[in-house]
Amino acid sequence: MKQFTYERAASPAEAASKAANNQNAKFIAGGTNLLDLMKLEIESPTHLIDVNGLDLDKIEQSENGGVRIGALVRNTDLASDERIRRDYGVLSRALLAGASGQLRNKATTAGNLLQRTRCPYFYDTAQPCNKRKPGSGCSAIGGVTRQLGVIGVSDACIATHPGDMAIAMRALDATVETVKPDGATRAIPIADFHKLPGDTPEIETTLERGEVITAVTLPAPVGGKHVYRKVRDRASYAFALVSVAAIIQPDGTGRVAVGGVAPKPWRVEEAEADLPQGSKAVMAKVFAGAKPTEENSFKVTLAERTLAGILEETKG
Amino acid sequence: MLFDRPATTNPIDQMKVVGQHITRIDGPKKVTGTATYAYEWNHANLNVAYGYPVGAGIAKGRISSMDIQAARNAPGVLAVVTAETAGKLSKGKMNAAKLLGGPEISHYHQAIAVVVAETFEQARAAASLIKVDYVRAPGSYDLEAAKDTAKKPEGSEGEDADTSAGNFDKAFAEAAVKFDQTYTTPDQSHAMMEPHSSLAMWDGDEVTVWTSNQMIAWNKSEMAITLGIDPEKVHIMSPFVGGGFGSKLFLRSDAVLAALGAKAAGRPVKLALPRPFVMNNTTHRPATIQRIRIGTTQEGKITAIAHESWNGNLPGGSLETAVAQTRLLYAGENRMTSMRLAALDLPEGNAMRAPGEAPGLMALEIAMDELAEQLNLDPVELRIINDTQVDPEKPERKFSHRQLVECLRRGAETFGWDKRNAETGRVKDGRWMVGMGVAAAFRNNMNMKSGARVRLDSEGVVTVETDMTDIGTGSYTIIAQTAAEMMGVTIDKVAVELGDSRFPASSGSGGQWGGNSSTAGVYAACVALRDAISQKVGFNSADVTFADGQIRSGNRSIALAEAAGKDGVVAEDTIEYGDLAEEMQQSTFGAHFVEVGVDMYTAEIRVRRMLSVCAAGRILNPITARSQVIGAMTMGVGGAFMEELAVDKRRGFFVNHDLAGYEVPVHADIPHQDVIFLDETDPTTSPMKAKGVGELGLCGVAAALSNAVHNATGVRIRDYPVTLDKLLRDMPQVG
Ligand SMILES: Cc1cc2nc3c(=O)[nH]c(=O)nc-3n(C[C@H](O)[C@H](O)[C@H](O)COP(=O)(O)OP(=O)(O)OC[C@H]3O[C@@H](n4cnc5c(N)ncnc54)[C@H](O)[C@@H]3O)c2cc1C
Ligand code: SF4
Fold first, then answer.
1. Residue numbers in A near B121 (CB within 8 A)
2. Which ligand ends up closest to the CA of A177?
3. In the prediction, which pLDDT does A316 show?
4. A233 and B603: CB-CB below 8 Å?
5. Which domains, ranges and CATH numbers included, belong to chain B?
6. pTM, entire model
7. CB B706 within 8 A of CB B640
8. Which residues does a 6 A CB cutoff place in the pocket of ligand 1?
9. pLDDT tens readout for residues B544-555
10. Mapped to the 3 state alphabet, what secondary structure does B250-268 carry?
11. Model confidence at B500, in pLDDT bands (50, 70, 90)?
12. Between chains, do B725 and A146 touch, taking CB under 8 Å as contact?
């Protein structure tokens, strides 16, 4: 870990402008991802701006009948919120499927959205990695890839977004609210928030330098049965091999987002029309153009079977 | 004390303290954080500095240049030591590769430098400033590709690589039923909780190392060899060990780097290996490829059995003795076993809990399940039909005590094995496909010379000193029980001091020899102490008894505290073994019964129930023994379903080198576990009449689990770990 300086920000706009003025600054929220990365010198900010004091830790009703989740709401608090459990069960379940109780107590909504990949080569600074060191090459391609992405990947990077929360948010059509260094705010649909790697896998989101996440909003509840199914090799405390966030309506229509397979929460809206035809039809469209490796091609089959199980469970 | 005849009645047989359910005497220290582990030694006046290692970033080749200047100049840095500046170092007899490498690199993360600084953070930051350029050399990292180049090792290891009896080829060719399959087991990491850690402190030319090590005497002599100093100048302290599983049998880089760093900095230095180093810098259980052929009669009697195994290792590394159990487990007149070693440039493969037995039984006990299916026999019955009470390669050698059949029958009855549906894929519970599996557990008992010193003081307290270690197994407690039984005192009147090289050399902890051997050493020392006390008080030692804190002879008795007098009485002895273990085969047996569920959609596997029935000599303490077995069963779940060091076959290293990537079972993976110990005393093993139990529990578990998955789904996986991606290829259709 490199030496760094530290300060607390008083408002989101102040945090943003401070960060914009220092190229090597980073925000710190729960620190559960950033500090690990700093210890391993995968990230080496020289200045930390602590956003924990900002007044962004509430879950409120929004004008349009939805909810507004402050960027600093802890994963535990979000998962156990009564409204979230009642109206957005898929989100509560996704959160509880992630990490451990201790981590969820610390982890924040914004930090969770921005958690970085778990590609093992990304974590070994002796190995080339385009995401960690742009232009150095990708050592995962041709190597150990069982956990890595099958769709949305590029020749420069095949890493996944490893999280759970964002997958549910994608199914819920969430929006990410931010403040920029000049004080301007914007609302980014979650579908556009994470970027595909292309030639620049080091750029993972549409956030600009210094831009602070202030909240995530969810539209009014859509009803239906909410399922989050996370598939992994052990029963707890592991990242998803594949996860499926699904909202299934009584008439068999619904929404499906897939995790563990792509650099971002993966959802293909057109595929959802085929839900009444069953999981095979849906997943054929969801994974159209997939480029799995020999080691991870099982993810396509697994996603299809996982959805089949969900459809069976939510029938009638 | 020479143990060369079966034990007769002795004070241990009273079982007033030995064999009782006594909780760990070191438990309160552990739960209050006052059991000091190697990295935690810290006194204000020690003035400790911190070391951080640098590991090679390539698997094979040479360092062409190393720039340490920036690290040296970094804040707080006291010293940087490399092979170039360390002075002459030798390689320990038990290490395949140098513990401080360079310029030649023999494996990934081989240590090439240590940085010492005032704080841990400074040392770590400075370590990352060391710039190294390498010239890579091509290496061999793929066992399967290297298999055909594998050879019989040289020396005594090679002599033991092949065995045979009768004529396997002919009998197999003529067998009514033939079975022939190949299995693979992956590289595995010990992944113990406490990484290798040491604190080294020099006083003139003497070095004291607080470390985390299973074998104090080995560690002492290996450290002396490595540093080129007199063993008498090396003191090793390892009173508490946070798990070892074999990875701490040997001197490793943490201790050497701490000693070199301390010398260079002129300060005590502590150093813990970062977690990735546990995988790539230390040892691991090497992967195997195993071929098993069995020929039987129509009724399932084995007439021919062959087991061949291949593993890879660094030059100087050893075989993984995966065929050893097949030499003894089942009957059959015609047999052959064979092991071959390929040269690989991965980190050193070496002993991990039940070395040889664990991977060997992972294969053999699936083979028995497959064979039973082929014969249309119950797998429990197939094992019973083929039981043997003699060493099948040398039928004149009997087993000293073999209760495999009893373990199987008792387990089957307790577990409800009769409810198993032999037809696969038939039992459902909601979305779960449910199956049961069985496997035999089998591991030999080993005895090791072991010494202890026992002291009786004027308070009537008995203090035991031995360099034995407690790696979480319960050594403190069973040693205290032994001394209490022998001296006729309650356990609170016994103090146990372990893990100090100034104490008499013990068996150490490994190969499940520690429990029986170290307590036998304490037994021997207590016999000597009883004699010394008798003599001191003028009693005839032939007819004294020690009970209730007193020594008695006829109607005379004296309290031990009084007998000790103000100077106390001290005695020391070592148990040594004659030829009993050659004359008779001493082994431990068990049977594992497990039930698993496999999600019919996702093929996720979850364990539902586990039972292990063990016959392993006298159980010295049912609580600590049970902990050993359930811990081993848990490790078996890891081995069956998740543990695999993933090899990058181009770059030559284990990629998943942390506990996020190398998964071991968590609480949620472990359901109800039961352990039953059959009554057994084996007078041929030691005066304790006990055997090892620490590794038995791991032997066969993974195969039982794998067999249960097959019973649940009908899918047979022969390449461990059994994971959902492998199952999915053949799972029944859904949706
Ligand atoms: C052992 C372990 C297991 C885990 N398992 C799972 C799992 O199963 N599923 C899962 O989904 N996750 C898992 N995680 C990841 C965990 O969810 C994230 O670490 C956590 O959500 C990050 O939140 P944080 O508040 O701690 O973020 P931090 O570490 O503080 O920050 C993360 C990033 O977000 C940035 N940031 C933080 N707040 C803001 C803001 N308001 N505006 C702009 N940028 C900001 C930081 O600069 C940093 O780059 C695991 C983590 C660990 C350590
Ligand atoms: S897949 Fe991406 S994160 Fe992994 S090594 Fe390649 S570039 Fe780096």
1. 1
2. 1
3. 73
4. no
5. 1-34+446-580 (3.30.365.10), 47-136+212-229+243-270 (3.90.1170.50), 394-444+585-727 (3.30.365.10)
6. 0.97
7. yes
8. A 26-34, 36, 51, 71, 98-99, 103, 106-108, 110-112, 114-115, 163-165, 212-213, 239; B 660
9. 999 999 999 999
10. CCCHHHHHHHHHHHHHCCC
11. very high
12. yes
